[in-house]
Fold:
Amino acid sequence: MNETPVFRTIALNGGLTLQVVDHSNRYFGDYHRIKLVISCELPLTAASIPEAWRERAAEVRERLGESLHFERSMERMGVAGDAVAAVKEEMLASFLTSTGHYLARPAFVARLVADKLGKKDTSQRRFTLIK
Structure:
């Protein structure tokens, strides 16, 4: 399997580490599609389990695992070859400005866990039969 190398690793204040993978490619002449995939493993610790679920921590770990995976993809089309590096930096700076401070908050993981626990599992039933 061909694995794409990490473009950049960014340490956040909350102790989390973002990995940025570059999936960019040239698609026509000197025009490029810039695609950055930003991901982070969020460890499931006692502090990250919402208070309402702390007594059932084992159940939470059984449902969600030992960590949660956060991933966001950013894409821009039609970038000229001489602007590729600048656009990548601009996209990354935009992500860190808009989303980075949320990820660095201590309550971010707990809120994400609460959101995951509150959602019903709909993976088995995607369609509803109407009679």
Observations:
- Residues 58 and 72 are 28 Å apart (CA to CA).
- The beta strands are 6-11, 17-22, 25-28, 31-43, 67-80.
- The chain has one domain: 6-115.
- The first helix runs from residue 57 to 64.
